[in-house]
């Protein structure tokens, strides 16, 4: 039987290990996500959650940290006393330095100290620095806990460039088969992103329009109002291109541009995404100079409150902040060079300290080929499909309609709105909830395959190389704005403009 058609079922027994179990990601996202799945009765009955860190904590100490995290990050209405107690009872903590070989025998003993240890699915979530991915994988192999039921989850970034990504993939791939490696991008677990596939492939009216004949251009924006915060040390080494474009934005582009797979299965979707990455127009140095904009936020106002510049934010957590050339904003123009999308521009934009927090995909269709209402009043606008990824997940289809009333035709832009919160009247699961359950069930559809990661780096590297060799500094933009003016010019020279949320 084709494995892509095989149902993914919940195992009877699972040990879910979080390396970095006392870190921000674990306490803010992973453990609340697992709690919500326990609340819905979706965790295996004897599932254990094992926290591994260098913190000097026993089981009870970690349970108290997790209890505090649940109180902070879970809505009060979802804090069911019985479920909280059951969930905390699943927790075990082990103090371990991943780089100390003599510590690992205790972890081996902890995994083996359970009923049906040989039939248990083991998930190893590496919420640690990527430099430890290979070392931890090697230690897991040495103590004999990697078998066909084992799975490893890798957080971004997978490397700093193509060579380092290949090195990480080689190190982890030496221990785990590719089918056991889950490279996570939480954007792919969001309901609106999932619904993009359904909207495209389960509705016959839209797919015939999803091509260069009818689509004028596509915009993908991931805007943040926050600054770098306490991530300055990491961020100054990465920048917006590595932190957001190479993974999140390119993955969203792939879902918009991919061909219909034969079915939505574990490899079919990833095969089609890879084809999109391989079809992206290669960026020459001249292309980079013309079609990319990089910026950095200066001091400004966000939500009416004064905020510091990137250099001032960075000075709190990194040396040589004044000489940094790291970008906090990227806008670029690219094309997917295949029959479906030939000639259609894709505009990508991401930045910190912008005027709003929003992640969205906007597909702008071409204007009607003939204007049939010469004596009408009002204006017509191109139809747009607006997919709101966050914060308010939903979808809007912008149309032109006749305004009611006698005395001629008055045209008015209107929208058909789908808000998930109001339409379905239920809590929307966090992206990590879906993705963590997919790991436990062994479903890799929403995770990045090795060839996807390396194809993305292959496309991004010429941009990074050109920026590194260029004497130009990132353009300044005041915090609380939509980015450098050059990002607006990038579209204006094509006769287009950025479509903001309230338009």
Automatic annotation (TrEMBL):
Enzyme Commission no: 1.1.1.49
Pfam families: G6PD_C, G6PD_N
Residues binding NADP(+), per UniProt: 54, 156
Class of the enzyme per the UniProt entry, highest EC level: oxidoreductase
InterPro entries, per the entry: G6P_DH (IPR001282), G6P_DH_AS (IPR019796), G6P_DH_C (IPR022675), G6P_DH_NAD-bd (IPR022674), NAD(P)-bd_dom_sf (IPR036291)
PROSITE patterns: G6P_DEHYDROGENASE
Protein name: Glucose-6-phosphate 1-dehydrogenase
Species, as recorded: Nocardioides koreensis
Lineage: Bacteria, Bacillati, Actinomycetota, Actinomycetes, Propionibacteriales
Gene name of the encoded protein: zwf_1
């Amino acid at each position: 039987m084709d494995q892509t058609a095989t149902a993914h079922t919940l195992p009877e027994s699972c040990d879910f290990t979080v390396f970095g179990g006392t870190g921000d990601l674990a306490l803010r996202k992973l453990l609340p996500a697992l709690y919500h799945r326990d609340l819905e009765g979706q965790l295996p009955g004897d599932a254990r959650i094992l926290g591994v860190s260098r913190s000097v904590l026993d089981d009870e100490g970690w349970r108290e940290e997790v209890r505090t995290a649940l109180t902070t990050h879970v809505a009060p209405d979802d804090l069911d006393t019985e479920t909280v107690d059951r969930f905390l009872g699943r927790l075990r903590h082990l103090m371990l330095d991943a780089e100390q070989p003599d510590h690992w025998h205790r972890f081996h003993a902890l995994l083996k100290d359970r009923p049906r240890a040989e039939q248990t699915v083991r998930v190893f979530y590496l919420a640690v620095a990527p430099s430890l991915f290979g070392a931890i994988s090697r230690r897991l192999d040495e103590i004999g806990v990697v078998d066909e039921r084992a799975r490893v989850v890798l957080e971004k970034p997978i490397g700093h460039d193509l060579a380092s990504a290949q090195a990480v993939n080689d190190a982890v791939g030496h221990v785990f088969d590719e089918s056991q490696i889950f490279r996570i991008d939480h954007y792919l677990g969001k309901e609106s992103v999932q619904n993009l596939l359904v909207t495209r492939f389960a509705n016959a009216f839209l797919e015939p329009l999803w091509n260069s004949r009818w689509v004028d251009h596509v915009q993908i924006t991931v805007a943040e109002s926050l600054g770098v915060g306490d991530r300055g040390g990491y961020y100054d080494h990465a920048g917006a291109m590595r932190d957001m474009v190479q993974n999140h934005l390119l993955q969203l582009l792939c879902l918009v541009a991919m061909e219909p797979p034969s079915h939505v299965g574990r490899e079919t979707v990833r095969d089609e995404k890879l084809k999109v990455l391989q079809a992206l127009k290669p960026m020459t140095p001249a292309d980079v100079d013309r079609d990319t904009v990089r910026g950095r936020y200066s001091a400004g106002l966000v939500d009416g409150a004064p905020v510091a510049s990137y250099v001032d934010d960075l000075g709190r957590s990194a040396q040589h902040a004044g000489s940094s050339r790291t970008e906090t904003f990227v806008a670029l123009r690219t094309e997917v060079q295949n029959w479906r999308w030939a000639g259609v521009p894709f505009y990508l934009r991401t930045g910190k300290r912008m005027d709003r927090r929003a992640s969205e995909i906007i597909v702008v269709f071409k204007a009607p080929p003939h204007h049939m209402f010469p004596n009408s009043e009002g204006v017509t606008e191109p139809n747009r499909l607006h997919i709101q990824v966050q914060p308010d997940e939903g979808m809007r289809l912008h149309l032109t309609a006749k305004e009611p009333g006698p005395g001629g035709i008055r045209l008015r832009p209107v929208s058909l709105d789908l808000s998930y919160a109001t339409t379905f009247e239920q809590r929307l699961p966090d992206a990590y909830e879906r993705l963590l359950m997919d790991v436990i069930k062994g479903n890799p559809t929403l995770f990045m395959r090795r060839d996807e990661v390396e194809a993305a780096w292959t496309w991004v590297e010429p941009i990074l190389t050109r920026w590194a060799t260029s004497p130009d500094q990132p353009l300044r933009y005041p915090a609380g704005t939509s980015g450098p003016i050059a990002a607006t010019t990038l579209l204006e020279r094509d006769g287009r403009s950025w479509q903001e949320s309230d338009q």
